[in-house]
Amino acid sequence: GDSVTQMEGPVTLSEEAFLTINCTYTATGYPSLFWYVQYPGEGLQLLLKATKADDKGSNKGFEATYRKETTSFHLEKGSVQVSDSAVYFCALGNIAGYSTLTFGKGTMLLVSP
Amino acid sequence: SAVISQKPSRDICQRGTSLTIQCQVDSQVTMMFWYRQQPGQSLTLIATANQGSEATYESGFVIDKFPISRPNLTFSTLTVSNMSPEDSSIYLCSVTGGQGIVGELFFGEGSRLTVL
Question: What is the pLDDT of residues A19-64, one digit of tens each?
Fold first, then answer.
């Protein structure tokens, strides 16, 4: 079945550092890929998405490129802020006619001033 | 986008009791989903709830333990029955984004249950 593997956290960075959170997946067919973010005390929010190979999703300075050859969708940001501290979930959607997701375990990001 | 409200936001429950979580959406939606997020774990889909039909449960989840109601297109409830400490989790309601992209979901803030 489908699966998503994320790097384990927490990832601890200083403000303005470069961020990479690795995500790889196993899936049949042509899944859509997502990054969701969960800020402290809040529900999950869609951060960015990519629906086909070589697409780049971007939002709020975050980027991720759908790499079919390496089955990866790594999240990057050039300069993180304290307000980016949250848990980040990589996910894929792959069932025609449904909108269910397979999630990774989440990676906590802690950014210090 | 959709605005989703869940009640309760958190609760502490005794072993053997049952608790019903409510999910209200600000627009009509066909499909609603219930997820569970156990401590330190990923989100796991419990069931899909369509209005006017029985919910569809994922492997490992059964209706007797997690009965779901879907009386109309903006509301659903999930009951966690005969709770044990292993049921301590965040339960999340979600709906589709409506733009035809598989997997684009909006989530409620979640209901954090602690079972003693």
Answer: 999 999 998 888 889 999 999 878 888 899 998 899 999 999 999 9
Indicate if the pLDDT at residue B101 is higher than 80: no
d(CA A19, CA A63): 10
Check B33 against A99: CB less than 8 A apart: yes
Backbone angles phi, psi at A40, to 5 degrees: -50, 125
Look-up of token digits 């449960």: B57
Min Cα distance B82 → chain A (Å) is 26
CB B99 within 8 A of CB B49: no
Q: What is the reported pLDDT for B96?
A: 82
Q: Say if the Cβ atoms of B42 and A104 lie within 8 Å.
A: yes
Residues of B in contact with A27 (CB under 8 A): none
Q: What is the mean pLDDT of residues B59-63?
A: 94
Q: Does B40 touch chain A (CB under 8 A)?
A: yes
Which token pair is A56? 């780049």
- State the residue for tokens 């003693």: B116
CA gap A40, A89 in Å, rounded: 14
Q: Which amino acid is at A76?
A: E
